[in-house]
Amino acid sequence: MTEHRAATLSDLPENDPTEVAVGDRKVVLVRQASSVFAVAATCPHKGVPLKMGAVKDGKLICPAHRAMFDLESGDLLAPPACESIASYPVRVDGEDVYVTVEPDQPEHPLPAHAGRGDDPRRFVILGSGAAGWRAAETLRREGFEGTINVVTDEGPVPLDRTGFSKGYLNSGETPALRDESTVAKLGIEVVKGRATGITPALKTVNLDGGVSLDYDALLIATGCDPRKLDVPGADLEGIHMIRGMADADALREDIESRAKAGPVRVAIVGAGFIGLEAATNLNKRDGVEVTVVTPEARPLAKLFGDAFGDRLLSEHREAGIEMRTETRVTGFAGSRRVEALETEGGDSIPCDIAIVAIGAKPRTEWLPFETLQDGGIGVDDKLAVAGVEDIYAAGDIAQLPTPWGDVRIEHWRFAQELGELAARNMLGQGARYAGTPFFWSMQQPNGSYSYTGHAESWDDARGAPDGDSFQVEYVTGGRKAAVLALGFDDDLTKLTLEMAGTGPVADA
């Protein structure tokens, strides 16, 4: 145990995180009156420096992705982080602040959790994505000692699928949320397979291959599949979609194989989040020429307005990406392998590889009960499915009542929040959604954008998406429902807390 003099009280502005060196370790100090708290210097999610974060109501909040930690204990309070942050003992002697750091103390410890015990219950979770895996871990954090089966048709560890349209396309570094040793430590059993049916009266779920699992509570968190483009030539080789690692691997291998013969022309059909992220990242590869084709005049304008759509269009063109707007693909040309996109206007766009990124549909067609028109599952405020006992739904497929209305939101962090909520309700806690929808993207040419709140329509959009940082506020009914921003801002972080559980706030 080693104690270090870290700072003086007068050097620490109140509630303003300050990074200091304590021995060979960086630590963040936060002063509140005469008390000082010391925690790890970085967020475990993406390593963002917490000295840039905000402090409010005893919470330290990551500035980038809004993970929240208890300032005193370092305990994880909100996603997207999966680990807590270390908390270090502090001693104040007059003006001097001393911090004690154990040499072997992990900076990002696994949150306290139960292990497999004598509880005879079995909880089955269908899907190992953001919602499903978060639910499994939350069950252990809430003290559940029964069997947890996570059913997945992917690998033995949970993966961050958002990475497959981003850096993984270039680096090949697997975006795993957990390694196998941590999965084992948590006592979570991963079952390889895909659900094919549920018998609610018997409380059983059937998997492909004839496997059947009994359950005491069941969570459906199967997520979405990419939408296919139903046009002539859609079955040609060289046409890809992106959902999981196998899809991303096939795309990377195809690019690398084609690159041996010279420049690779990649055509991306669709200018949504996945399409634009893939375009930005593939455009960074030497010898890859990217064209994005969309029937819309401006990308994402329906979600964020024409001005932001114009900004995205300019950014991508300035980065060297060809943007073909107001262009509808009617087919793929080629004898065995794709050679071109055919368009409604009669143009032919040559390509060596095509990526279809035209949205996603809920993986719910196999369910024995009624789904919504868009394929989602309607749930109550506790995420329970009506008409069936002990069945819950979470993540991209769940439409639930919130202060923003009945919404089905395909956000990664929102899915994690719903996974936590579902786990607590599977344990009978009667919890309701008390967060704020938030996402960040998009790894665009000039930075990552964030979106706080939710607005499917708006009366007024205040602010302009200009410059190196901006905020656009979406106002409806005299209340601020959402904010689109570029850049970190403490006010936006605090808005997340203000909206949590209450929804749109009064417009100033």
UniProtKB/TrEMBL annotation:
Residue ranges crossing the lipid bilayer per the database entry: none
Keyword Plastid (UniProt): no
Cofactor entry: FAD
GO cellular component: cytoplasm
Keywords (A to Z) from UniProt: 2Fe-2S, FAD, Flavoprotein, Iron, Iron-sulfur, Metal-binding, Oxidoreductase
GO MF annotation: an example: 2 iron, 2 sulfur cluster binding
Alphabetical list of InterPro entries matching this protein: FAD-oxidoreductase/Apoptosis, FAD/NAD-bd_sf, FAD/NAD-binding_dom, FAD/NAD-linked_Rdtase_dimer_sf, Rieske_2Fe-2S, Rieske_2Fe-2S_sf
UniProt cross-references to Pfam families, sorted A to Z: Pyr_redox_2, Rieske
The keyword Cell inner membrane belongs to this UniProt entry's keyword annotation: no
Boundaries of every Rieske domain copy: 4-99
Protein name: NADPH-dependent 2,4-dienoyl-CoA reductase, sulfur reductase
Organism: Palleronia salina
Organism phylogeny: Bacteria, Pseudomonadati, Pseudomonadota, Alphaproteobacteria, Rhodobacterales
